[in-house]
C-alpha cells in the first residue's frame, strides 16, 4: 500500500502549504550595504573620503595635531603632540560614562578591602545616570581614608577599558579633533566634530572655530591632496589654512603653498572609513552617475531567476529591506536616487508568480535609527529618536507602503523598523512608535502581520512582550549572529554549536511560551568567528541553527540571498552544500505527490 501524508496545520496565516516562514533576506538590493557588494563604490573619486569618514590633521611644520578643547565648541588650535586612540571611535556618549567605568573599577577593587561598601557601590552605579557623579564623589572620599592598591587598580582599569572603550566619552581625553567628513563634491568637504559642531572660518583671514551647529559656506573647504597624503585646506575665497606660530589654525596663509614642510601643509590620517551606504554612494558619485550605477545594480542583483531558485528550495518568504526615500519615488530628496519603488513592485510580481510571500522591512528611517550604513546614516550619528519630525515622517512612509501593498496577494507583513539601537533609541520612544505603526497598518489591513524588531545592544527581548503594542498578528523579530560580540571570539566549533542549543534554544522556548507576539528570527547566517572550519563544521553549525530556529513560532529568514562573502550568500551555501535545509512541509507534499504519480504510472504500465 502507498500512503500520502499531507501536512494541513497552518500556524502562520497566508503561507502556501507551510506552517511557518522559511525565508531569505534580499539584503544589499534596495538598501545599499557596501560590504555586501563592494564593487558598487569602485568608481567614486576619492573613495576613501566618503561622508562619515573620520580624519585627523597634523601640521608638518609644528609637528602637532589640530585640536579643540572638549572636541569642539571653541577655536581650533594646533597644539597636541600625540593623537589619542580614543578619538578613533565614532560613538558619541555621555561624559559620566567614564566616571561610571572608574566607579565600577574602584568597586571591584574594594571587594578585597571593604566588601560591603563595594557591593553597595556596584548596585548604585546601575540605578541612574544622575547618581553616578555623586557616587564618584562618595568613592573619592572613601579612597582618601582607604587607599586602593594602585597596581591592581591600574590592571583592572586596563582590562575594563579594553572591553568598554567604545562607550567612553572623548571629552575627557585628548582634545585632538576627530573630524567627520560631509562631502560636498569630489574635493570639497565640511568637517563635523564628534560633538556635532562644524569647523568654519570667522571672516577673511580669521581664526578657525568649531562652534557652528550647521554647515555654512565659510565652513566648506577644498582639500588638495598629494600622493603622500599631505593636504592643503583651502576656503572658497582661495585662502589657505595654516598653523600659526602661536598654535592657532587661521585662514591667512600668503600665496599658494608647496608640499614642503610649510605652515599650510598638513598630514591627513584617515582613522575611520566604515560607512558605505546609500548616502555615501549617491553623494560620492553625484546624481547622474549614481543613478546609472544603482539602476544597473537594481536590475541585475535580484531577478526573477532568483525567485525560481528560492521556490525550488522550499523558501516561502522574502524579507525585503527598503529605505524611507521609497515613499518619494521617483524623485526622492537629495542625494537619494529613485527607482526602488519600481523594483519593489517587480519583487511582488515575481513573488506572486512563485507562491512566495513578502515582508516589507523598513531598514532605513529618516535620521537613522542606529547610525549604521544600512540605515543610510550620513556620518554615523543616530538622529531618528530625538526628532519628532523624523518619527512622524517614518509613520508617513509606513502609511504609504501599507496603502500600496496591504491588499496585494503576496503580502505577508510589514516590519516597522529594522534594528533600532539601544540605548540611543529609548524604549518608551520606540514603543510609542510601534503602537502608532501598528494602528497605521490596521487602517489598511486587518490580517497583515505587524513585525517589531528588538533593539540591538544589551537588551532583553522580553521588553517588547510587556509593551502591549497590538492585539492581533504581531511578531517580534530577533537577529541571531554568533558574531559581533567578544563572546564568540576564539570560540570553538563545538562551543558555537552548544551556544545555539543552550542559549538560543532556551530563549526561544521562553519566548514561545510567553503568551505574547509570535517569534521571528529575521536574520541569521551560517558564518562565525571560527577560522579554518571545514565544510562538515559549517554543515553541523547550519544544521544546529535550523534545528533550533525552526521552533520559532513565526519562522526564520536567512541573511542574505546574495553576498560577496561566500558564507553570507544563501545561494552559494545551498549550491555548495554548506547549508542543508531539509524539506519544508510544502516540499514534502510535492515530493509525496510526485511519488504517488510515479507509483500510478508504474501500476498502469505493469498491471
TrEMBL record:
Any one GO CC term of the record = cytoplasm
Per the UniProt entry, what are the Gene Ontology biological process annotations, in alphabetical order? actin filament bundle assembly; cell migration; establishment or maintenance of cell polarity; polysaccharide catabolic process
Could you tell me which Pfam families the record lists for this protein? Cellulase, DUF7910
* Keyword Acyltransferase in record: no
| SUPFAM superfamilies recorded | (Trans)glycosidases, Actin-crosslinking proteins
Q: Which GO terms describe its molecular function?
A: actin filament binding; hydrolase activity, hydrolyzing O-glycosyl compounds
Q: Which family does it belong to?
A: Belongs to the glycosyl hydrolase 5 (cellulase A) family.
Name the chain's protein: Mannan endo-1,4-beta-mannosidase
Amino acid at each position: 500500500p502507498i500512503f500520502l501524508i499531507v501536512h494541513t496545520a497552518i500556524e502562520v496565516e497566508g503561507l502556501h502549504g507551510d506552517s511557518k516562514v522559511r525565508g531569505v533576506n534580499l539584503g544589499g538590493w534596495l538598501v545599499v550595504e557596501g560590504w555586501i557588494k563592494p564593487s558598487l563604490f569602485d568608481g567614486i573619486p576619492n573613495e576613501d573620503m566618503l561622508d562619515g569618514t573620520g580624519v585627523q590633521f597634523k601640521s608638518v611644520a609644528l609637528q602637532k595635531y589640530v585640536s579643540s578643547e572638549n572636541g569642539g565648541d571653541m577655536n581650533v588650535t594646533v597644539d597636541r603632540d600625540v593623537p589619542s586612540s580614543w578619538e578613533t571611535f565614532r560613538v558619541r556618549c555621555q561624559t559620566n560614562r567614564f566616571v561610571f567605568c572608574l566607579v565600577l573599577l574602584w568597586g571591584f577593587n574594594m571587594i578585597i578591602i571593604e566588601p560591603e561598601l563595594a557591593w553597595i557601590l556596584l548596585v548604585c552605579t546601575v540605578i541612574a545616570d544622575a547618581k553616578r557623579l555623586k557616587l564618584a564623589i562618595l568613592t573619592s572620599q572613601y579612597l582618601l581614608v582607604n587607599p586602593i592598591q594602585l597596581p591592581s587598580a591600574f590592571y583592572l582599569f586596563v582590562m575594563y577599558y579594553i572591553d568598554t572603550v567604545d562607550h567612553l566619552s572623548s571629552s575627557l581625553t585628548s582634545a585632538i579633533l576627530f573630524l567627520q567628513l560631509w562631502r560636498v563634491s569630489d574635493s570639497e568637504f565640511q568637517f563635523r566634530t564628534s560633538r556635532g559642531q562644524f569647523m568654519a572660518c570667522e571672516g577673511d583671514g580669521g581664526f578657525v572655530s568649531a562652534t557652528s551647529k550647521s554647515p555654512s559656506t565659510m565652513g566648506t573647504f577644498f582639500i588638495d591632496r598629494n600622493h603622500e597624503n599631505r593636504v592643503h585646506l583651502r576656503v572658497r575665497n582661495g585662502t589657505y589654512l595654516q598653523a600659526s606660530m602661536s598654535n592657532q589654525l587661521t585662514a591667512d596663509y600668503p600665496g599658494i603653498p608647496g608640499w614642503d614642510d610649510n605652515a599650510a601643509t598638513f598630514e591627513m590620517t584617515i582613522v575611520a572609513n566604515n560607512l558605505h551606504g546609500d548616502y555615501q554612494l549617491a553623494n560620492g558619485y553625484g546624481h547622474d552617475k549614481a543613478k546609472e550605477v544603482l539602476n544597473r545594480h537594481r536590475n541585475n542583483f535580484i531577478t526573477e531567476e532568483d525567485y525560481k531558485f528560492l521556490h525550488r528550495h522550499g523558501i516561502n518568504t522574502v524579507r525585503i529591506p527598503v529605505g524611507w526615500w521609497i515613499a518619494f519615488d521617483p524623485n526622492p530628496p537629495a542625494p537619494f536616487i529613485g527607482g526602488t519603488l519600481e523594483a519593489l513592485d517587480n519583487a511582488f510580481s515575481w513573488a506572486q508568480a512563485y507562491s512566495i510571500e513578502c515582508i516589507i522591512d523598513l531598514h532605513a528611517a529618516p535620521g537613522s535609527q542606529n547610525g549604521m550604513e544600512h540605515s543610510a546614516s550620513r556620518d554615523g550619528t543616530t538622529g531618528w529618536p530625538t526628532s519628532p519630525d523624523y518619527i512622524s515622517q517614518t509613520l508617513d512612509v509606513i502609511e504609504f507602503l501599507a496603502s500600496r501593498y496591504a491588499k496585494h496577494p503576496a503580502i505577508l507583513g510589514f516590519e516597522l523598523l529594522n534594528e533600532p539601537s539601544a540605548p540611543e533609541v529609548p524604549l518608551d520612544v520606540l514603543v510609542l512608535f510601534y503602537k502608532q505603526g501598528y494602528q497605521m497598518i490596521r487602517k489598511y489591513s486587518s490580517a497583515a502581520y505587524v513585525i517589531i524588531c528588538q533593539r540591538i545592544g544589551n537588551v532583553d527581548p522580553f521588553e517588547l512582550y510587556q509593551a502591549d503594542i497590538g492585539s492581533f498578528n504581531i511578531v517580534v523579530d530577533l537577529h541571531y549572529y554568533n558574531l559581533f560580540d567578544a563572546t564568540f571570539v576564539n570560540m570553538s566549533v563545538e562551543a558555537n554549536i552548544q551556544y545555539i542549543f543552550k542559549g538560543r534554544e532556551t530563549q526561544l522556548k521562553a519566548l514561545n511560551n510567553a503568551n505574547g507576539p509570535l517569534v521571528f528570527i529575521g536574520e541569521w547566517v551560517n558564518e562565525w568567528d571560527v577560522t579554518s572550519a571545514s565544510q562538515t563544521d559549517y554543515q553541523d553549525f547550519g544544521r544546529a541553527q535550523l534545528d533550533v530556529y525552526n521552533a520559532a513560532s513565526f519562522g526564520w529568514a536567512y541573511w542574505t540571498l546574495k553576498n560577496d562573502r561566500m558564507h553570507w550568500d544563501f545561494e552559494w551555501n545551498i549550491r555548495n552544500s554548506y547549508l542543508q535545509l531539509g524539506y519544508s512541509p510544502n516540499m514534502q507534499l510535492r515530493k509525496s505527490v510526485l511519488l504517488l504519480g510515479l507509483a500510478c504510472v508504474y501500476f498502469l504500465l505493469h498491471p
